[in-house]
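Task: sequence design from structure.
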């Protein structure tokens, strides 16, 4: 038996941003976005149609950290009348931050932090609704019920996961992604690619998640290298945005697995951007699955055009190298022993336990990538 549930209303296509004011429906809204001119221009367009937000939080940085979230949440709690809805306009860090604010809006951030650290009953939370408008193709956060939260001071990464954090609406407008530079396009695209593959080699995979994941991975293999060389191509931008959305739908039902579990200390300790940190190990992971059979092997071969093992690893290496992404841990400042230690620890993490493969096989596979 299997189940699948995703309640997010999705609107996809160029010009979709024009629907934002209508989706707000006259409600008081908190705008969460980035501190740049492009985001400010988009915010002004919404305000011209929907009225001004009750508050703008536009100092969102990559990898939302508890220290910054505390300062930002104080501004929300200082409002005389709380917002009715949150408009998240940006990439994964913006949407994840908006989810934290949504969860904390009733009782403050302290309750969310206690939930993250102690895992009490999630039923106490009644998050504000969210309208998510991603401006990058990669996060998938617009169709999931969780947010990644970092605690740099403690060297920890948490996942805030509540059923009420599914956005009520996701508006995916590829036109908002046209101006993104190559490095950001590649890193966010690789995050989406990892989402797709991670939902295939996953204990929680279902026929539905496999369909979306295979479609996403196959498309990204073709589109992302082409887009990296032709950033102004609207058709490629649209195809990449849809593939990233499909990857988000896939892993919204499975969560991620070992590549993401490995990536968290790499980002925390070595400063490697998330999309690269969760993708450069993909060839080693694919190699470690040699000999696996059944629906998992069939899906991986359908996605990569090669069965799990050396052929799939070689396919992934060629893909990453075309994007100027190294698959060698040493190129990220990680020595062989440190890499082995991180992999061992990753298997014990919540995401690592989703992986269908074996620790010993992956450790051996990584040796071939040194």
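Answer:
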């Amino acid at each position: 038996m299997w189940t699948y549930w995703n309640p997010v209303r999705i609107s996809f296509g160029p010009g979709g941003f024009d629907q934002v004011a209508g989706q707000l429906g006259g409600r008081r809204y908190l705008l969460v976005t980035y501190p740049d001119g492009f985001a400010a221009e988009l915010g002004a367009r919404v305000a011209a149609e929907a009225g001004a937000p009750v508050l703008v939080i536009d100092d969102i940085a990559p990898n939302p950290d508890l220290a910054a979230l505390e300062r930002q949440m104080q501004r929300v709690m200082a409002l005389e009348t709380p917002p009715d809805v949150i408009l998240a306009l940006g990439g994964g860090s913006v949407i994840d931050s908006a989810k934290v604010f949504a969860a904390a809006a009733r009782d403050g951030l302290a309750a969310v932090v206690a939930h993250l650290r102690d895992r009490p009953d999630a039923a106490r939370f009644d998050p504000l609704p969210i309208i998510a408008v991603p401006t990058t193709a990669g996060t998938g956060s617009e169709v999931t019920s969780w947010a990644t939260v970092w605690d740099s001071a403690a060297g920890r990464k948490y996942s805030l996961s509540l059923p009420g954090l599914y956005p009520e609406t996701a508006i995916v407008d590829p036109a908002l992604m046209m101006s993104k530079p190559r490095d950001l396009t590649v890193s966010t695209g690789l995050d989406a690619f990892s989402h797709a593959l991670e939902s295939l080699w996953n204990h929680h995979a279902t026929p539905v998640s496999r369909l979306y994941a295979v479609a996403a991975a196959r498309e990204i293999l073709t589109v992302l290298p082409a887009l990296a060389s032709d950033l102004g191509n609207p058709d490629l931008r649209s195809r990449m945005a849809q593939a990233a959305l499909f990857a988000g739908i896939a892993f919204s039902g499975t969560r991620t697995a070992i590549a993401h579990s490995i990536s968290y200390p790499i980002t925390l300790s070595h400063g490697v951007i998330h999309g690269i940190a969760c993708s450069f190990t993909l060839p080693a992971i694919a190699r470690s699955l040699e000999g696996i059979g059944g629906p998992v092997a069939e899906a991986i071969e359908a996605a990569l055009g090669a069965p799990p093992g050396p052929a799939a690893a070689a396919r992934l290496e060629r893909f990453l190298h075309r994007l100027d992404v190294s698959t060698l841990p040493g190129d990220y400042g990680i020595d062989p022993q440190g890499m082995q230690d991180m992999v061992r620890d990753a298997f014990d993490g919540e995401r690592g336990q989703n992986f269908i493969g074996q620790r010993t096989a992956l450790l051996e596979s990584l040796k071939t990538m040194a």
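The mean pLDDT is 95.
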